[in-house]
């Protein structure tokens, strides 16, 4: 008897991966069908082609032409997108290691939910290109910052040094420098000090304390003296009567003035000071300032800038890149991923699809069938998928770690050294013309 | 006495079962179809007896010649129960039994076939008569959804049924 051949029509839509994905005329139509979780790359025709081909790849690799793969095309598209984003993430991390030091302080921007730069100054200056694809200039970025800080500390950099003075009062030893400067700063608009209104209760750093004695020059040249006429050499400065003068040559004037300054410095410098917290203490206690002790004590100070202060006269990068998070790296455009990257993405997307399939087949420990139960290969799929994903990520990360700019420089140095060693073995005594 | 605080509104669309809804049931059907038809591939030919066109004996209700509807090839899982030899009144008799496990949804939704006691099955080269049906396995414990229809069948003696 002939066996009837019937082809029962499925009344329930089965979900099985088709042989290939489907192109649509417009990116919008494709995106609505593909239902990508993020849709970062839906605007890229190349990405669409890659994702459609990935369906065929997955179909073949998981044996779809023999048995059903309980996935939809949309699952594979999503895997492909995730794989591309993962690739972008790893490569951007690598590039961050390369260039963060040089980009510190560089312009950054704001990012949308996909991680791409929003319209803004940087987006305009890049003109649609991506910072992560550029080879920045080597700027010693962070080293320079450190150097600037050290230079500022040594008063060699950008730090402004201000000068102020304290008028000593008789029998007053303690002077609150912070208060004196703050008060002068508050009133500074009237008296025109450079630090007017700049102190703003910030702690000042006193860098030098000194005093000058204008009386010294007055006494040296005296009200009866002048060049080529000087007081009695033997007694001047100690017992001078300001009335005995000699005509001397210029060099003697010079030598004597130096001796005189030195004598004054030595004799009059018995005043000293000590600074603790805001307070400067004068030793010994000044008595009769202007006559018996210095009239004024001068000091130089600086006002440490707030680390985030912005210089109104020039951009100094305070608002720029400060660390990994503000690096202006968007998702790497699909078109800028080369063949090695594309192959990595295919493999990773396949592993992700496999994981999805494992999740689907693993929802039930066993699937009931007539008269029995069947256990699907969920555990194997999931384990394999995880292992493959980890392996791919580790391989790429290791490779990129070997290719950082630092490592490349090391390799170049090694190459140069090796070449030099080879050169030493070349006989130099034979000339071949 | 009506108590307003004790009233509740039934939603128009009740929520699906928390863990196993239509998607899960469809997946089970899909896996079953694939497994039974493309992996295992056991088939039987099902002969539905036409009650309307078969000439029954008016007193005993039996029909020597049975009229059947067009036979249908059905994928099912067949459990061969072996052949028992018995001696009745010094005569040898051989009784063969099979249990056919039909995938209920495939049968009823896609093939519009309902298994009945009294219908015949061709398995291998022998005809079997369905003598007992059971649908005792619920899908995920849901009363409205059954996994299978199991049919216990005895080999028909020659002359009882002829599908040729």
Written description of the protein model:
The complex is a heterodimer of chains A (433) and B (164). Chain A is mainly alpha-helical and 433 residues long. Chain A folds into two domains: 27-133 and 324-421, no CATH class; 158-302, no CATH class. Chain A has helices at residues 27-34, 45-61, 73-103, 121-126, 141-153, 177-186, 188-191, 214-221, 250-268, 339-361, 378-401, 405-424; strands at 161-167, 174-176, 205-210, 229-231, 245-247, 272-276, 279-283, 296-302, 367-369, 372-374. In chain A, a hairpin with a 2-residue loop joins strand 9 and strand 10. The longest helix of chain A is centred in the first third of the chain and has 31 residues, at 73-103. Chain A starts with 26 loop residues before the first helix and ends in a 9-residue tail after the last helix. Mean pLDDT of chain A is 83; it is low at 233-240. Chain B has 164 residues and is an alpha+beta fold. Chain B has a seven-stranded antiparallel sheet with strand order 2-1-5-6-9-4-3. In chain B, strand 7 and strand 8 (142-146) form a beta hairpin. The chains are: A mainly alpha (433), B alpha+beta (164). Chain A binds chain B through residues 1, 3-6, 8-16, 67-68, 70, 360, 363-364, 367-372, 374, 376, and chain B through 24, 26-36, 38-39, 43, 45, 70-73, 76-77, 79, 99, 101-106, 109-111, 122, 137, 139, 147-150, 163-164.
């Amino acid at each position: 008897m002939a066996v009837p051949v019937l082809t029962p029509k499925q009344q329930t839509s089965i979900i099985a991966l088709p042989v290939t994905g489907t192109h649509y005329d417009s990116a919008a139509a494709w995106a609505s069908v593909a239902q990508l979780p993020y849709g970062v790359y839906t605007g890229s025709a190349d990405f669409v082609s890659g994702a459609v081909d990935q369906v065929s790849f997955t179909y073949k690799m998981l044996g779809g032409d023999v048995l059903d793969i309980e996935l939809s095309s949309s699952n594979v598209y999503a895997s492909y997108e995730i794989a591309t984003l993962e690739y972008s993430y790893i490569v951007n991390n690598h590039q961050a290691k390369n260039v963060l030091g040089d980009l510190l302080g560089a312009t950054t921007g704001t990012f949308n939910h996909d991680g791409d730069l929003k319209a803004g100054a940087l987006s305009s200056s890049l003109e649609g290109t991506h910072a992560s694809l550029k080879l920045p200039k080597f700027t010693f970025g962070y080293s320079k910052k450190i150097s600037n800080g050290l230079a500022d500390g040594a008063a060699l950099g950008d730090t402004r040094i201000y000068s102020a003075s304290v008028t000593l009062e008789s029998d007053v030893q303690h002077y609150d420098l912070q208060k004196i400067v703050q008060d002068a700063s508050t009133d500074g608009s009237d008296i025109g000090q450079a630090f007017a209104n700049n102190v703003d209760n910030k702690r000042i750093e006193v860098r030098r304390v000194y005093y000058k004695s204008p009386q010294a020059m007055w006494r040296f040249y005296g009200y009866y003296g002048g060049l080529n006429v000087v007081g009695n050499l033997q007694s001047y400065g100690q017992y001078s009567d300001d009335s005995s003068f000699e005509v001397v040559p210029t060099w003697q004037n010079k030598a004597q003035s130096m001796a005189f300054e030195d004598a004054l410095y030595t004799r009059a410098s018995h005043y000293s000071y000590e600074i603790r917290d805001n307070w400067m203490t004068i030793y010994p206690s000044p008595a009769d300032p202007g006559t018996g002790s210095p009239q004024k004590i001068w000091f130089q100070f600086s006002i440490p800038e707030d680390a985030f202060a912005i210089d109104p006269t020039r951009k100094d990068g305070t608002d720029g890149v400060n660390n990994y998070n503000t690096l202006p790296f968007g998702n790497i455009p699909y078109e800028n991923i080369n063949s090695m990257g594309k192959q990595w993405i295919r493999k990773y997307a396949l592993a992700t699809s496999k994981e999805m399939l494992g999740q689907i087949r693993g929802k039930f420990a066993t699937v009931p069938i007539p008269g029995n139960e069947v256990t699907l290969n969920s555990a194997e799929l999931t384990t394999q998928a995880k292992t493959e994903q980890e392996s791919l990520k580790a391989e790429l990360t290791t490779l990129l770690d070997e290719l950082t700019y630092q490592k490349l420089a090391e390799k170049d140095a090694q190459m140069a050294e090796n070449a030099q060693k080879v050169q030493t073995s070349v006989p130099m005594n034979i000339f071949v013309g | 006495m009506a108590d307003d605080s004790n009233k509740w509104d039934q939603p128009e669309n009740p929520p699906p079962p928390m863990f196993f809804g239509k998607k899960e049931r469809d997946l089970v059907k899909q896996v079953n179809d694939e497994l039974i038809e493309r992996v295992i591939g056991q088939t039987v030919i099902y002969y539905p007896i036409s009650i309307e066109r078969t000439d029954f004996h008016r007193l005993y209700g039996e029909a020597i010649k049975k009229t059947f509807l067009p036979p249908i090839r059905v994928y099912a899982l067949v459990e061969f129960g072996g052949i028992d030899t018995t001696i009745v009144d010094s005569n040898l008799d051989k009784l063969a039994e099979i249990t056919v496990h039909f995938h209920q949804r495939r049968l009823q939704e896609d093939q519009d076939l309902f298994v009945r006691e009294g219908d015949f099955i061709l398995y291998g080269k022998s005809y079997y008569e369905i003598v007992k049906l059971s649908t005792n396995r619920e899908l995920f414990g849901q009363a409205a959804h059954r996994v299978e229809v199991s049919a216990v069948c005895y080999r028909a003696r020659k002359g009882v049924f002829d599908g040729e």
